[in-house]
Amino acid sequence: MDLGSAWTSLMDEGYAVIRGAVDAKVCDDINQRIANFKQRNAKAVARNLDEHGRLYRVVNLHLAVDAITQLLVRNAAIGVCDRFFGEPTSLYTTLYYERGSEQSLHRDTPMFCTTPSERYLGVWVALDDVSDDNGPLRVVPRSHLLPPIDLARMRRDVFGDGSIAPLSPEGWNAYQEEVQRQCNEANLAFLPMHAQRGDVIVWHPQLFHGGAPHLSPRTRRSVVMHVTPKGVPVGHMDVFFDPAKAVSRAKWGYYQRGDRHVAKFKRVDFGHEYGYRTWRLRRA
């Protein structure tokens, strides 16, 4: 798919598939460097590994394996993101998987609530071939076009006059259940997305998506990049349900890779269960 067609697909269907957007040699280099990282940091990764030795949902691994940032710098699909934003795309955070996420269908917006709104895209890069048996991504075409949800009413119903935690499970579940209800009413269903190493899927901030069950012992290595323009603040559910809490500028700095910018954080998190400051990890 050329970038013009990818743009049309993103706006009309809510996602775009750009085949071979990342060169296979770049993928191979990243895979090898992550394997080296696992060997050099065996104690740090041990609690996160499954029975097949696969990592799951590592947040911001690019801070310890710098080669991952090449998925921003040397990625033809980023041109679609630049067009969506109307300015250069920067990297906010990443997720790294060695098996399928198996995550329920959801929208990202409660966790990536930008100011202004919809200054975010998800960019998924396949580092392995993906088919039905190793946890393909699922997307619900045109779910980004569903009617807006009354967030003020949902806030009253779920939280009353109480405070809203940034990672509130009550808020998350209520919102995703309402999106699922809308999808059911509109007869919208998910599609599994098969991919080959180097393929990229870009999704709209309002797209309903998730992960299929991972049925085999083989890997499904992939990176999700959460991208925004440089300097855009990203809030969570406290801001999503209470826009008055939004700030006008990102509180983090950036460093440069090629002609792109990467948000500067200091921690790599493993499965949202534990984490390490980057200085404690041996780089690869």
TrEMBL record:
Name of a matching Pfam family: PhyH
UniProt-listed InterPro entries: Phytyl_CoA_dOase-like
Record has Transferase as a keyword: no
GO MF annotation, one: 2-oxoglutarate-dependent dioxygenase activity
Cofactor list: Fe(2+)
Origin superkingdom: Bacteria
Keywords: Dioxygenase, Oxidoreductase
Name of the protein described by the UniProt record: Phytanoyl-CoA dioxygenase
Organism: Dyella japonica A8
